[in-house]
Amino acid sequence: MLVRMLLQGAALLVLSSGSAAAQQYPAKPVRFVVPYPAGGVNDLGARALGQRMAAALGQPWIVDNRPGRGGNIGTDFVAKAPPDGYTLVHGGMGSLTLGPFLTKLPYDTLRDFAPVTLTARAPNVIAVHPSLPVRSVKELIALAQARPGALNYATPGVGSTPHLTAALFVSMTSVRMVHIPYKGGAPAAIDLVAGQVPIGFGPIASFLPHIASGRVRGLAVTALQRSPLMPDTPTVSEAGLAGFEMSPWFGVLAPAGTPQDVIARLNSELVRILRAPDFATQLAAHGVDATHSTPDEFGAVLRSDLQKWGKVIREAGIKGE
User: Which of 75, 104, 168, 214 lies 20 to 30 Å from 54, alpha-carbon distance?
Assistant: First the structure.
């Protein structure tokens, strides 16, 4: 009996000390890893979040850019960090749900991370040079079907979310087009504007100025909802491919094993910020839509995307570079 009482007391002490630690969280600066270069959309969103989280929690949020290998280096750094809530990643779809099918990774998305919340979505857009005689997705499909293998399309690179957008488009329409991969969204947009390539799949932020000027024609956005940045442009699903969706996301994740009450505290504060209209406006200036989720909802997105995009990548025969 005495031994049992001592064990129960010890267990209560551990639980109470863990709860007290969570109530004091954060007691020191938080490292917020961005696995991409400074100045990109992921980085800008992380810095905006970090600034507000520092004010809300009373501790600095230090943005730590660790780019390389499509986001895999910084993501792996967080996977191996202590699970105490003081090292987080502003992860992206590429390194978490596309990368596992394009290269051998040193981490496992579902095993090594604890989702906190989605933060933003950055839909792609299908655009064409004005010289191409199409003004809708249906007309583009019809032209591609009439000219199999004759149309080229640009993306920011092999395995990028625009490339996967195009692969899904090809899969759902059974058209044949030729992929022209570029080293980034900007050079792809430049060649689309110049007419060097007639079709482009890319982030709204890359194409929007050219669409607004009339040098490029935007046919459809790839999310299930219209973008506030292009409210008059239909979604691909609306334009004839029902259910089509590629809506690249960003989100905050912690190392697996991070205490649940710390995850809950982070989620609560981040969601409060993400719901603020002025924060949504701040992100919209960079071509992304603010969003939020529960940890479980984010986990469901990870599982669903791994299944969906693994199938698309395998069927398209896409190999990482």
Answer: 75
